[in-house]
Structure formats: structure tokens, C-alpha cells
């Protein structure tokens, strides 16, 4: 029986210190890297708040959001994914970039959010696999377990309109857009 090679895709860092750098990652079921134009819009929205921010990416996938945040001046990033291959690949990318202000963990992101962090985060990227009912429980866990600073930003990528989601009452919609079948929105936590 002939074994097929895993399909490899590329991601490009759009802006910041590492702008235009390209990295490869192995495609996996359910992995949907945030498209370039969506990332560009998101980081334009965050342009005044990314410098020095503590960023959390509990469903990192290709690592595109983590790499983009670090390239644009985030002070620290924690990226989490269940896939060993993804974790190894993202660690290699950070080593290539000589980046020491990030940690990559192989862990269940939702389970991790069920615990308390050592320190709260200013910006959280929530882009879990679609159709697995992970987004709303992740949002609830961020609030319940003190993962967020008082005025944190929370980025959501989902298959549903933000208006159809049950989100914490102290989150205010800051911006939202749609690209094809993907809704993306930025929320601001109110203390």
C-alpha cells in the first residue's frame, strides 16, 4: 500500500518585524489558517494595543495569529494546540526567528482554560476548529477563570454570526466582519 505524503501549506507573516517571511506547516483535518486579508484587518483593529501585549492563542493551529502578533510587537505569547506536529513546527518557526518571548504547549486548549493562569492576558485569539462547539465554552472559561485583564480584547473566528452566540455579558462588540463562510469579530471586555 502506497503511503501518501502529508500536504504542506505556507503561511506568510504580513506585517511588523518579520513581515513577508513565509513558513510551511503540514495540513491537518479541521486546520483553517486565518487568511491574510482577515489577519491584516484584525491587526489594523489592534494596531494601538498590540505593543507589549500578553497574547493567548489556545487553539493555535498554523500559528499564524501568534506569529503575526509577535512580529507586530506583542510582549509575550502563549500558543497551545493538541497536535504534536503543530507544536513542533511552531517551535521551529520561533527558533528560526530567534524569538524567546513565546511559549508553545501541546495541550487541550479548552481544558487549559478550565484552570487559572499565572497572569492575565490583554489579547486572546479564539479560532477553534469549526462545528465542535468549542467557542462558547472557551469564552465562558476565559471569564470564569480570570484569563483576561480588565479591558482585554478577545478575537473570535466562527462559523456563526456573533449575534447568534451566547457570550459573556460584559463583552462589548468592538468590530466584526465576514469573509466567505467565516465570521470574525473583536470584542472588548468591560470590567
Question: How would you describe the overall organization of this protein?
Answer:
This protein is of the alpha/beta class and 191 residues long. It has five helices and nine strands; from the N terminus they run E-E-H-E-H-E-H-E-H-E-H-E-E-E. The strands form two sheets. The chain has a seven-stranded mixed sheet, with helices on both faces. Strands 1-2 form a two-stranded antiparallel ribbon. Helix 5 links the parallel strand 6 and strand 7. The protein is globular.
Architecture blueprint of SSEs:
Blueprint: E1 8-12, E2 22-26, H1 36-45, E3 54-57, H2 64-71, E4 76-81, H3 84-96, E5 102-106, H4 109-113, E6 121-126, H5 135-144, E7 148-158, E8 171-179, E9 182-189
Parallel strand pairs: 3-4, 3-6, 4-5, 6-7
Antiparallel strand pairs: 1-2, 7-9, 8-9
Tertiary shape: globular
The profile of the biggest β sheet is:
7 strands, mixed
List the secondary-structure elements in sequence, H or E: EEHEHEHEHEHEEE
Which percent range describes the beta-strand content? 25-35%
How are strands sequenced across the largest beta sheet?
5-4-3-6-7-9-8
- What's the assembly state of these chains? single chain
Q: In angstroms, what separates the terminal alpha carbons?
A: 59 Å
Number of strands: 9
Rounded radius of gyration (Å) = 16 Å
**Helical stretch tally:** 5
Low-pLDDT parts are none
In terms of structural class, how would the helical and strand content be classed? Answer: alpha/beta
Mean pLDDT: 91
